[in-house]
Amino acid sequence: MAELSQILKQATGVVAARGEGVYLYDEQDRRYLDFTAGIGVTSTGHCHPRVVEAAQQQVGKLIHAQYTTVMHRPLLTLVDRLSEVLPTGLDRMFFANSGSEAIEAALRLTRQATRRPNVIVFHGGFHGRTVAAASMTTSGTKFKGGFSPLMSGVHVSPFPDPGYFGWSVEESTDFALKQLDYVLQTLSQPEETAAFFVEPVLGEGGYVPGNTRFFAGLRERADRYGIQLVLDEVQTGFGRTGKFWGEDHFDVRPDVLVTAKGLASGFPLSGIAASDELMEKAWPGSQGGTYGANAVACAAALATLDVIEDEKLVQNSADRGEELRGALASVASGHDQITDVRGLGLMIGNEFRDADGNPDGATAGAVQQEAAKRGLLLLTCGAWSQVVRFIPALVVNSEQVDEAASIWSDAV
Ligand code: PLP
């Protein structure tokens, strides 16, 4: 019998047979509380009936029509619907299948529009695993090991991470902006810099939220030097942080918004949004792909938007997130090895450190495994895998939050 490649390391050991809401069932029909949601993808829960219905209907009508050849109605309707939720002025979209592809689309667009070669990214940022996206990723060496040379023209500047520096938010923001000026002036050069690529909340890098002054500093420098500000909302979009977009917490206007995970409840769909003016500068033929904006994925995305609105999932994310953060903070208060519980909405991380204050991925991993044995699926993140993260579907209710917190407490 064929076996899966060694390079696929599996976090939980579960073989899923079916999913329903926040629950997954394995092949022996054992039930798990799934607080991974396919890495923050299935925001409407597994197999939401309205998403299933929309996809089934679409499969019977049209599965695929390559959209630079023939347009289809689900895509046209989706563009209209997204324009209602996208930040003002970002009226043009381009669609692909994964976060990495969308990041590459944003990279191509900003380099073409500015005719500049460099990009500046931020420590702890994760933008994907394709070669360009991995070149822009700094949230762990494992994402870029062994396949050099990577893309050139990438410069890295600090993200304001108070926990890492052991400073206040103010101090870490002062430092991050000062270092950004240093990187701009001495390494990248403003007139050679096409874009800043940044996440509103570091995802794979450890669930570290940015802050308003930091993003205002990026916006101001972007405007001053004609640099494009690209916000990677792949993980933070569609209500995950308790607001529709992660950037809504920080009052920052991007030039390009990159989105994927929460967009289509698990169907592969990603996109970038930018102004007409910027999109006009894309070189014809340079953006596209055979499978982007698949008709079934677009139909699922439309149903996803309906569910988010009708079931008030953005508010639920904020409310259940607060409950969950409170419950996790209370568990942490009895355990010295959990040194921080942080995040926004239903994107919450628990940081593990050892007695010397060093990041403790071994303990985080052991607790994650204990939780899985007790029926709660979780993932780790952070450069040392020292953060255990909770990212349930946004349909999670208070009882499920309590159940997860109780299993977590036992596992810790
Ligand atoms: N950007 C961010 C912020 C992500 O969290 C991810 C994936 O986790 C990506 C980009 C890459 O997305 P994908 O894995 O779909 O290529």
Automatic annotation (TrEMBL):
Protein name from the UniProt record: (S)-3-amino-2-methylpropionate transaminase
Source organism, top-level taxon: Bacteria
Lineage of the organism: Bacteria, Bacillati, Actinomycetota, Actinomycetes, Propionibacteriales
Presence of the UniProt keyword tRNA-binding in the record: no
Pathways per UniProt: Amino-acid degradation; 4-aminobutanoate degradation
InterPro entries xrefs: Aminotrans_3, Aminotrans_3_PPA_site, Class-III_PLP-dep_AT, PyrdxlP-dep_Trfase, PyrdxlP-dep_Trfase_major, PyrdxlP-dep_Trfase_small
Pfam families, A to Z: Aminotran_3
Reaction(s) this enzyme catalyzes, per UniProt: (S)-3-amino-2-methylpropanoate + 2-oxoglutarate = 2-methyl-3-oxopropanoate + L-glutamate; 4-aminobutanoate + 2-oxoglutarate = succinate semialdehyde + L-glutamate
Species, as recorded: Microlunatus soli
This protein's UniProt keywords: Aminotransferase, Pyridoxal phosphate, Transferase
EC number in record: 2.6.1.19, 2.6.1.22
Keyword Lipid metabolism: no
Required cofactor(s): pyridoxal 5'-phosphate
Family: Belongs to the class-III pyridoxal-phosphate-dependent aminotransferase family.
GO MF terms held by the record: (S)-3-amino-2-methylpropionate transaminase activity; 4-aminobutyrate:2-oxoglutarate transaminase activity; identical protein binding; pyridoxal phosphate binding
